[in-house]
Hints:
The complex is a heterodimer of chains A (320) and B (328).
Chain A: H1 5-30, H2 45-52, E1 60-63, H3 68-74, H4 78-85, E2 109-112, H5 120-133, E3 139-144, H6 151-163, E4 167-173, E5 176-177, E6 180-181, H7 191-194, E7 201-206, H8 210-225, E8 231-236, H9 257-263, H10 265-276, H11 281-304, H12 312-315
Parallel strand pairs in A: 1-2, 1-3, 3-4, 4-8, 7-8
Antiparallel strand pairs in A: 5-6
Chain B: E1 2-5, H1 6-20, E2 24-28, H2 43-47, E3 52-54, H3 59-71, E4 75-80, H4 90-97, H5 100-103, E5 113-118, H6 133-137, E6 143-145, H7 150-162, E7 167-172, E8 179-182, E9 195-198, E10 203-207, H8 210-223, E11 229-233, E12 236-238, H9 242-252, E13 255-262, H10 267-278, E14 288-292, H11 301-307, H12 311-321
Parallel strand pairs in B: 2-3, 2-4, 4-5, 5-7, 6-7, 10-11, 10-13, 13-14
Antiparallel strand pairs in B: 1-8, 6-12, 9-11
Helix pairs in contact in B: 1-7, 3-4, 8-12, 9-10
Amino acid sequence: MALDARAALALLRTMWRIRMFEERVGVLKRADEVYGLIHLSIGAEGVASAVCTQLRADDAVYSGHRAHGHALAKGAPSGRVMAELMGRSDGLCSGLGGSMHLVDVEHGLMGATGVVGGNIPLALGSALAARLRGTDQVAVVFFGDGAVQAGHFNESVNLAALWRLPVILVCENNGMAEFTTRSEHSVIERVSDVVAPYSITRETVDGNDAAAVWEAFARHLAAARGGEGPYLLECLTHRLRGHYEGDPTQYRDALAAEEWRQRDPIGRLTRLAADEGWFGEAQAAAAEADARAEIEAAVQFARASPYPEPALPGALVYAP
Amino acid sequence: MSATTYVKAINAALAVAMREDPRVFVMGEDVAEGGPYTATAGLAEEFGRERVRNTPISEGAICGVAIGAAQSGLRPVLEIMFIDFITLALDQLVNQAAKAHSMSGGQLEVPLVLRTQGGAGQRGGAQHSQSLEAWLTHVPGLKVVMPSGAADAAGLLASAIADPNPVVFVENKALYFKREELGERPPAVAIGAAATVRSGADVTIVALSRMVGEALAAAALLAGEGVDAEVIDPRTLVPLDLATIVASVERTGRLVVAHEAVTFGGFGAEIAAEVGRAAFDSLDAPIERVGAPFTPIPLSPPLEDAYLPGAAEIHAAALATLGRRPAG
């Protein structure tokens, strides 16, 4: 399955929406307009976009603490995501969740968690539910390479392989676990090698090459849609910002500007599209401009939303 | 009416729920083999191994799988074989299941039942005998039930499976094979309703799980000494039916709280504090608490027997509220 002009443009537009959103959130964080620990995914937009633009609304997606891009790519309205980061009543979760706990059931975003890797087994549960109900939904969970050393990752891989669940594990391997490099966390460099003994289908791709991620994911998705699984797709990517906004980033060197220009997933896809004749500069520029306008509107929407009523937390401890 | 046991009542309630609702399924370690206490015996034969799923010894992951299945529309009943192992599932239970409804602004529901069992007295040692329910009651979003007999076990399990929230269902291994007369289909028992299992005028004894039977034995002793004890089984710790307890203390003026868990930091402290606040003017004596000492549970039989609180301790505590001491 190869990327075509239509899918490529959707991919580019989604990446621009995430880029604009994340850059704006970084500014808003410094202005104290968004709250809590804010983890940005600038540099890794290609993974969220290539995966989520191929999913249906009723496919389950789970994410971790770096979830904004996954939410936007899965269809969550940018204004409601922004409002959630600002703790407002029109936020996705009525202002009770925040940046690390985005949920949008209507669009199939079934959970994001601040516990690293903590909802990998939940994705297995959604896949099991599809199996027991006899539907063809798949479940996808995003996590970073930092989650791979946790017990729940290893327990989940074993269980997913044992039960052959239609779940796709998407690892965004940015080489960093919080403040330290992967080499300080594990002797196994590639996450796909960690799961090798389970004999599950696994693949490592250049996560900054959105077309490559798209094509690899398309193959695994088609198989999972047919009820097969599990799959592990490891995407080697970059985290251009710190672990969270405002962290002491002296611990690593930023990529050189020219090196980043070569690797930036947005630039790469734009150049590829030109080479393939999929779309030209005008459409690429429109994707950027439209995203900028959308995110500006999202900020205005979020700012206009009131804070939730004080009684709301008490009313939502239990489902009625 | 026919003779049954606590564990058979649980087994039957599971089978009824699975027959009536295709969303209900059972998962846990060895559940398809019936488990160590036969709680799930025969279910795999009737419902197949897709709905009665043996799992690896991965408490964290299987709890997470159950949560994901629950919020995707199924009704999992997860067994954690011993409550001592719930430590391994607590991240999933506390950080995911308990908070999903609230953190999603009400979008997600987690209709999960986590069955587990605790309790000492069977020489299980310090890692197979604990009573850890108080930890769970401290987490908003979880419901916690502790049935003391077969009828309540069946009735509360039916309600727990029907509940749209995560319910931790804490059984006691020492109760499993106690015989009880029970109707063919025991009625559902509402979560959050205490039961007054013995009426009395002189002292209120609130007892949890296995200690309900011990409290009734103590009440029989007290009756022979001219003391008329009321025994209340909260049945549900969260939400707690405080009104029934307070109304009783307002009549009796005295309260004993008894559980098998370590006294210090135990759930009895919460009951005592709430009653102290709500019925302070009615109290004629300090509230007495009965529980286990602040030590890991010893293996050696005479030491474990001495460790385990029972009717004698409840009896002495009730007399203490009357300014009396046990004879002899």
